[in-house]
Design brief:
Elements: E1 2-4, E2 18-24, H1 29-38, E3 48-52, E4 56-57, E5 60-61, E6 67-70, E7 80-85, H2 86-91, E8 93-98, E9 104-110, E10 122-129, H3 143-146, E11 154-159, H4 175-190, E12 193-195, E13 217-222, E14 229-233, E15 246-250, E16 261-262, H5 269-277, H6 290-310, E17 314-315, H7 327-345, H8 349-372
Parallel strand pairs: 2-3, 10-11
Antiparallel strand pairs: 1-8, 2-15, 3-7, 4-5, 6-7, 8-9, 9-10, 11-13, 12-13, 14-15, 16-17
Helix pairs in contact: 7-8
């Protein structure tokens, strides 16, 4: 069931990053207030806060300025909540998605343009709090209900109450603990979802020092969202809860600088010709076999390629470079701008006709260059 709480979008809004916070509050308002105050210590204030076991009174969530709160509808006390920044709500279109359970809630964020430079225009964030039960799968929500295939980005945050070696490799697991946790992670990896939690980074520290810390808060991202996940960390030590705050930051994928390549147009043909006179190849095997002939060919082609690249200067194209551009296009563009300036200074029919012709010639050449690349 979906409930739209805003219906307008603003494509001019730009979010260079998308900070998200996940925390378990134990139903305590003191922990909740401590969590709010801790936002001032973060490098970037969160746009979305996913809380498990939030404080509530008569099924009404606690509120704090600057955020809108959402929880599963009654009956029952909400076990999860999602708080959205009013800044986010003012610029994007969002909707809540209910799952007929007080332990699970999702929010769909709809964008008029791609999310953080990606082609996807939707983002779903799910907050979940798995409660232990006495019957299989021994948790309140089955893995098939929790994980589903979505073609757009999906982030799942929650207190899973699971122990698995991928999240906590130093923990000694019983066969029952591994069997219960494996059925959830196997379903997640088959869809597939990636586990964002850093292995071995504890998210729960009991006040009783006789008990070891553990990893109960997990985060999963599907393949559509994984390239946008910049970091997962625990930036703060304590908020008066035995669970630590977990932060997830979404950012546009890093633009990889293209490697330098030989500039074949500036190849020194005279030097290459002189080098070829002294170029010798490794003797071919007397009785070649497919493997020996393949090795001989690889060695010879590598030596020849090294000779050519040695006499060709390297070029370092930037990410915005246009490999289809040519000196002829530069000349046509200069000519077009020249006649455009003349026509603006003296708007006679002849000058206007020359400007139109040069513009048409330039743009046709550009389109032809793009097609041939």
């Amino acid at each position: 069931m979906e409930n739209f709480f805003t219906t307008y979008t603003d494509s001019s809004a730009v979010f260079p990053s998308f900070p998200i916070v996940q925390h378990y509050c134990h139903g305590s308002r003191d922990v909740f207030l401590s969590l709010i105050q801790s936002f001032t210590l973060l490098p970037h204030p969160p746009l979305l806060v996913a809380i498990q076991d939030p404080p509530s009174r008569r099924s009404v969530l606690s509120t704090f300025p600057g955020f809108l709160s959402f929880a599963p509808p009654p009956p029952g006390c909400p076990r999860v909540a999602i708080y959205l920044s009013r800044t986010l709500n003012q610029h994007l279109s969002c909707s809540t998605v209910f799952h007929d359970s007080s332990e699970m809630l999702s929010v769909d964020i709809l964008l008029s343009e791609g999310l953080l430079g990606s082609p996807h225009r939707s983002l779903r964030v799910t907050s979940v709090n798995l409660l232990c039960t006495n019957s299989p799968p021994y948790h309140s929500i089955s893995p098939e209900r929790l994980f589903s295939f979505l073609s757009y980005p999906h982030l799942i945050l929650g207190d899973f109450n699971l122990h698995h070696p991928l999240a906590d490799p130093c923990r000694s697991l019983s066969e029952r603990e591994f069997t219960i946790s494996a059925c959830y992670l196997d379903v997640a990896f088959d869809l597939p979802y990636d586990l964002l939690t850093t292995p071995g980074v504890y998210t729960r520290f009991l006040f009783d020092t006789t008990w070891r810390p553990s990893v109960l808060q997990l985060a999963f991202a599907n393949t559509a969202l994984s390239p946008l996940v910049f970091s997962w960390d625990t930036p703060l030590h304590s908020t008066s809860s035995d669970h630590v705050l977990c932060g997830i930051t979404l950012r546009p994928p890093a633009i990889m600088q293209p490697p330098p390549t030989p500039h074949w147009a500036l190849l020194d043909l005279q030097a290459v010709g002189e080098a070829l006179y002294t170029f010798t190849t490794v003797p071919c095997p007397a009785r070649p076999t497919p493997n020996s002939l393949s090795r001989w060919f690889d060695i010879t082609s590598t030596r020849l390629n090294s000779l050519l690249t040695f006499h060709a200067p390297s070029k370092h194209p930037c990410p915005c470079s246009k490999p289809w551009w040519s000196p002829r296009l530069s000349s046509l563009r200069r000519e077009y701008h020249k006649y455009a300036r003349i026509s603006r200074l003296n708007p006679s029919p002849l000058n206007w006709s020359n400007a139109k012709y040069s513009r048409r010639t330039c743009f046709k050449a550009i389109a032809s260059g793009k097609k041939t690349q």
